[in-house]
From TrEMBL:
Its main location: membrane. GO terms for molecular function: ATP binding; ATP hydrolysis activity; ATPase-coupled transmembrane transporter activity. It is found in: Cell membrane. The lineage of its organism: Bacteria, Bacillati, Bacillota, Bacilli, Bacillales. Belongs to the ABC transporter superfamily. The keyword Metal-binding does not apply. PANTHER family: ENERGY-COUPLING FACTOR TRANSPORTER ATP-BINDING PROTEIN ECFA1 (PTHR43553:SF24), HEAVY METAL TRANSPORTER (PTHR43553). The keyword Transit peptide does not apply. Keywords: ATP-binding, Cell membrane, Membrane, Nucleotide-binding, Translocase, Transport. It is a peripheral membrane protein. It comes from the Bacteria. Residues 5-232 form the ABC transporter domain. One of its GO terms (cellular component) is ATP-binding cassette (ABC) transporter complex. This is ABC transporter ATP-binding protein.
């Protein structure tokens, strides 16, 4: 599998920053990978995404060193989609990201229809992006980022401003992009309950350094480290580890279930085998 993005010893200090906000980041993303990025507020998640997108150092004042290379196009969606909107309609909003690329009107129209279908917003073309629900707004922002068919999609806390319904819409879209489009996605988020369900790989950033970088299963088995870094350990993971500690499950033979459905299946098989009795 080929690398779509690679950072090598990337360091960054904002002009007025007292210390390095990115302190020697080495990271490579492989095609088709869906990666979760977690870390406390102020740890450097947004700054890292800006560096990946080349907006740091291009659009910010400060001190940069290291190397960042991206193979192909990249799309980025920021935390609050509304601040990015400039179009009066959803169609205009998405067209804006395409018109700069010299495509003809018919091709633009077709592409808009395609990306709206992809994010589940067919029929929304003539709506005002400002009048949509939070989840719909975020999906319009994602549609704009997807319009020019990027190889890599960066999402910065895409659900932090959303209600549970909106968050569900956005997470189910991310899963669809993973499963149906095989997209390479990096999502910065505090929502570890959801990340644990679909991420292949997890990164933990603390004080501008990547302190954990491993497959999601291994990552969520490090409960003590996650606790120490103030990262929320998903309930499913806590339940699994409690059952391992109690001797009901064996960590060596039974991997941690990712979803409630997986836990239910595991539980039913234990009941069938008589390893767990229902009182
Ligand atoms: N434009 C800026 N100028 C100076 N310092 C900044 C700027 N943006 C962020 N920082 C600082 O960089 C650090 C990392 O911020 P950020 O990347 O936004 O973290 P996160 O996204 O993980 O919350 C914080 O200490 C923050 O105050
Ligand atoms: Mg941030």
């Amino acid at each position: 599998m080929s690398s779509v993005l690679s950072l090598s010893d990337v360091c960054w200090r904002y002009e007025d920053g007292a210390s390095w906000t990115l302190a020697g980041i080495d990271l490579s993303l492989t095609e088709g990978e869906v990666v979760g990025l977690v870390g406390l507020s102020g740890a450097g998640k947004t700054t890292l995404l800006l560096a990946m997108a080349g907006l740091i150092p291009a659009n910010y004042a400060g001190q940069f060193s290291g190397r960042c290379s991206v193979q192909g196009e990249l799309g980025i969606v920021f935390q609050d989609p509304e601040t990015q909107f400039i179009g009066l309609t959803v169609e205009e909003e998405i067209a804006f990201s395409l018109e700069n690329r010299g495509q003809d009107d018919r091709a633009i129209e077709r592409r808009i229809e395609d990306v709206l279908a992809l994010v589940g917003l067919s029929g929304f073309a003539s709506r005002s992006p400002f009048e949509l629900s939070g989840g719909e707004k975020q999906r319009v922002a994602i549609a704009s980022a997807l319009a020019h068919a990027p190889k890599l999609l960066l999402l910065d806390e895409p659900t932090s401003e959303l209600d549970p319904k909106g968050a569900r819409e956005v997470f189910s879209l991310i899963r669809r992009l993973k499963e149906e489009e095989r997209m390479t996605i990096l999502v910065a988020s505090h929502a570890t309950e959801e990340l644990a369900q679909f991420c292949d790989r997890m990164l933990l950033i603390a004080d501008g350094a990547i302190v954990m970088d491993m497959p999601a299963d291994a990552f969520f088995s490090q409960v003590a480290s996650l606790d120490a870094h103030g990262i929320h350990v998903p309930d499913m993971v806590r339940l699994y580890h409690a059952l391992c500690t109690e001797g009901v499950l064996d960590e060596k033979t039974t991997p941690c279930p990712r979803t409630v459905e997986d836990m239910l299946t595991l539980w039913q098989s234990l009941v069938r085998k008589g390893e767990v009795a229902i009182p």
